[in-house]
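Hey team,

Filing this mostly as a record. A colleague (T.K.) asked me to run one chain through the structure pipeline before their review meeting, and I want the input and output archived in the tracker in case anyone asks later how it was produced. No errors, nothing strange. Just documentation.

Input sequence:
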Amino acid sequence: MTLPALLLAALLQSGAGLMPDPDQPSPFPASDSEADISAKVAELRAFFGSSEQDTRDTVATAQQRALIERLEARHAARLAGIWVDNDPGWHVVVRLTGDEPVADEVHGGADGPQYVHFRTGAG
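Output structure:
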């Protein structure tokens, strides 16, 4: 891991609230729009001097973390489990109790779409 990548990893923790540092920019874009993602990538690259791909990976990881938090809150009453499968691509799998189906979702991401797959029938 290069020094800029290490700094970006620390930045991600800062954005997650583990090591708040008001002198570092947050890794979270204002929205999932490509314009906001591009602006955030440019801001982080300028601050850290990191590569485009390292920065996009960091922003995508931050986006995925925020997405998981939203999914946990939205489906709290039925949530049986949630996990990440990012090989290949960006995927969150949500396991729900009950048989009522929930349509899969696609969200914008800094390193490609973030897919949410719902699986019902958990006991």
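Quick notes for T.K.: The two ends are 41 Å apart (CA to CA). The longest strand covers residues 114-122.
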